[in-house]
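Escalated from tier 1: 2'-deoxycytidine-5'-monophosphate holo job.
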Amino acid sequence: MNKPVPIIAVDGPSGVGKGTLCQALANHFKWHLLDSGAIYRVLALSAIKQAIALEDESQLVQLALNLPLTFNTDGCEVKVLLNHIDVTKDIRTEQIGGAASKVAAINTVRAALLQRQRDFRQAPGLIADGRDMGSVVFSDAPVKIFLDASAHSRAERRMKQLQDKQNHVKFAQILQEITERDLRDRNRTFAPLKPAIDALIIDTTSLSIQDVFNQSIKYINEKLAL
Ligand code: DC
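Tier 2 regenerated the structure:
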């Protein structure tokens, strides 16, 4: 029997460094990358553009089932396209992050996006970044990593990223947005943000990106016997 395509599932709250770690792992192993948060973000953006309420379950499910979303990979850069239009930057705002977290709390919307995410499982392997990669979408993943960090340190990192992009932001506002999003993502009834029982938990609060990468690689190599 063919061996299943291996998956490294990386989950955790917003601003914890999952995106950076996943991109580094995808480059290291030369595997595919799934940014599942981008799918929820594009869904939210598309709903807002079409004036669909973020609570309108049936319209959101229809939208999710027919979402004209593509990821274009050019070297290390991934572009997110909605209806062939580049929305890579548009989906990265705090407003869209909050809206994504709202639509993601609806069970039927999550179910409508399940197969689309599973289709990313392609040889030679997949790095899957999200909230429920290890617990639901790829529960058979041989490697599961859950990154966590205090809300305060995640807000600090986020603030730095935004300042780097010359946005003027208030720390208190960012901390509040992160805390609200966490609360919603952790407490929803379907696929809440929580570590899979067999996940390695790494607290990144006082770790550098390199430390997190090194710990992850060591664990992955052991698990996959590389
Ligand atoms: O990872 P992110 O910040 O881009 O995700 C945006 C929102 O999408 C997040 O607040 C919750 C939701 N999400 C989810 O519910 N499940 C996932 N696998 C990924 C994201």
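The first strand starts at residue 7 and ends at 11.
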